[in-house]
Amino acid sequence: MLTKNWNSRTGRFDVTFDLPAELDIEQAAVVGEFNDWSETANPMSTDADGRWSATIALGPGSYRFRYHLGDDRWENDWNADSYVGNDFGGADSVVTVPEEPSAPPPAKAAAPRKAATKKATAKKAPAKKAAAGKKATAKKSAKKAAKKPPAGS
Question: In the chain, N or C: fewer CB atoms in 10 Å?
Fold first, then answer.
């Protein structure tokens, strides 16, 4: 299994190559184009669970590799990024290292909120109210005057 972690200090990816504990092996090494197919350059070590692993800093590109398990025993990583045929009639695993880590999508800026606006309510001008009041008073006075008999009759 492959795990790629960006190392901002080196500007490269630290690629961890893992083999399961179930393998009946006493040694393992990661061998590939990144180490000129050296069987001794990148030995793997076991952890407390018996898993074998090695971490190698790699620059961008695609690299063929295989696991050398001692003697003439070779294994592919069946979780590799891809596979390509080799000159020996088999296949090599391929790890592809990107240029740089994928940036998370930019956070969306919150849309500016519009200030709550009050609807303009039509207010009657006080002058109109007063004028309307005067008209009503004038009408009432006219009615009263019409009901009264003329003085002196």
Answer: C
